[in-house]
């Protein structure tokens, strides 16, 4: 097991049609925080889903994790208050950032053991949600 961290938030949501900038998009980026334990299968949390299964989800992308340490920065950049899960992540943590994690590292989250398989590649839906075309590039 790798570094010490604290679970700040568990976030799930099913894909739905939303309108960003006058355009209707099918997306699973809108997650809501849950307080109760949620079952994690090999491909997703119960009650969660991805709209684009070519680029998101599956055994190598079942869970998206993001560091809560970045939220203050993004609140300033976006000029708005943000709640955990605002970037479509399933798990928001503290005590660990990208430079602390390597592909292959494993972590225990409740009863589940998860393994890092790849860095996040944000899609255009993040840009649409915040109306910032280059946001996925800044976010990487």
TrEMBL record:
Residues 32-140 form the MOSC domain. Coiled coil: none annotated. It holds the Pfam family MOSC. InterPro entries: Benzoxazolinone_Detox_Enz, MoCF_Sase_C, Pyrv_Knase-like_insert_dom_sf. GO terms for molecular function: catalytic activity; molybdenum ion binding; pyridoxal phosphate binding. This is MOSC domain-containing protein. It comes from Bacillus wiedmannii.
